Amino acid sequence: MSSKRMLFKKQLYQIQTVATNVYVLSFKRDFTFRAGQVVAIDLVPDGEPRLYSIASGEQDLYVQILFDEKKEGKLTPFLSKLKAGDYIYVSEPFGSFKTDNHSAYWIASGTGIAPFVSMARSGLGVDKILVHGGRLDENFYFREELESFFPDCYFRCCSQQEDTAYFKGRLTEWLINKNDLQLDAHFYLCGSAEMVVQVRDILISKGISFQQIISETYF
Ligand SMILES: Cc1cc2nc3c(=O)[nH]c(=O)nc-3n(C[C@H](O)[C@H](O)[C@H](O)COP(=O)(O)OP(=O)(O)OC[C@H]3O[C@@H](n4cnc5c(N)ncnc54)[C@H](O)[C@@H]3O)c2cc1C
Questions:
Q1: What's residue 4's pLDDT?
Q2: Does residue 3 lie within any of the structural domains?
Q3: Rounded distance, CA 153 to CA 110, Å?
Q4: CATH number, domain at 111?
Q5: Ligand 1 center from residue 77 Cα (angstroms)
Q6: 219 lines ligand 1 (CB under 6 A)
Q7: Angle at the Cα of 172 from the Cα atoms of 145 and 149, rounded to 5 degrees
Q8: Which helix (H) or strand (E) holds 176?
Q9: What would the pLDDT profile of 6-57 be if each residue is shown by its tens digit?
Q10: Same domain as 113, residue 159
């Protein structure tokens, strides 16, 4: 998806591999943002930038972006080859995906965990239940930090690893089997369109109203 916003040159502080073909890049924070917001990123100032959720906390010194490399993608195969000291172009933060004090489920697939990491790091994880779907155990990014934020309410659903340490199956199966959902909670969804649509349907079939569901779709 493209987004015509002014982009500003940033020097990469670090780029780390966190799983097969999945990376966290970081650059020094010189703007304020609200947890849940995104930035547009590109390698040139006037191209077709892609959108990425900010994963860092609102007060952190560095902005972190979690991304996976899409084969044949226009940006991510090049982004993943960058080194510390290289330059990228980044917009101001924007977007309306935000949490509040109401009890809520935070439901993510893949890199869709990023805005919830930002929210937890910003102190907004009180009274929240985190559900993350990934293909392999290595895809539960930031897991150690999230375990400390959510010692009793962090559920991982692993769809493709036979010997997973977590729930074996897709997060949609976990939700279908869950018979004690808090029906007055809010439900925040973030990830692929497929996940968002399927989870929304499951929640509605369990009696959750459309107004209780807030989603951020990655496409
Ligand atoms: C609000 C929002 C937040 C997002 N946040 C994140 C995030 O935090 N982390 C993250 O990893 N991603 C995030 N995304 C997704 C991100 O913006 C990019 O779409 C993603 O990184 C792929 O970019 P790319 O340029 O590498 O791939 P693209 O060039 O966009 O291609 C994506 C895929 O489509 C295929 N494709 C491209 N063109 C065609 C075609 N013509 N026909 C068939 N297939 C084609 C490619 O092979 C590739 O696999 C977010 C998206 C949105 C909308």
A1: 79
A2: no
A3: 18
A4: 3.40.50.80
A5: 11
A6: yes
A7: 15
A8: helix 171-177
A9: 999 999 999 999 999 999 999 999 999 999 999 999 999 999 999 999 999 9
A10: yes
Tell me the CA–centroid distance for residue 67 and ligand 1, in Å: 10
Given 38, 63, 90, which residue is the final one in a domain? Answer: 90
Q: Is the CB of 52 under 6 A from ligand 1?
A: yes
CA of 218 to the centre of ligand 1 (A): 8
Residue 78's SS3 state is helix
Closest C-alpha residue for ligand 1 atom 24: 73
In the chain, the percentage of residues whose pLDDT exceeds 90 is 98
Give me the phi and psi of 191, to 5 degrees please.
155, -150
* HSE toward the beta carbon, residue 64, CA cutoff 13 A: 25
Whether residue 108 sits in one domain with residue 75: no
* 157/79 Cα distance (integer angstroms): 28
Domain that holds residue 149: 104-218
CA distance 117 to 215: 16
User: Residue 214's closest CA among 92, 119, 91?
Assistant: 119
For the full predicted model, state whether its pTM sits above 0.90.
yes
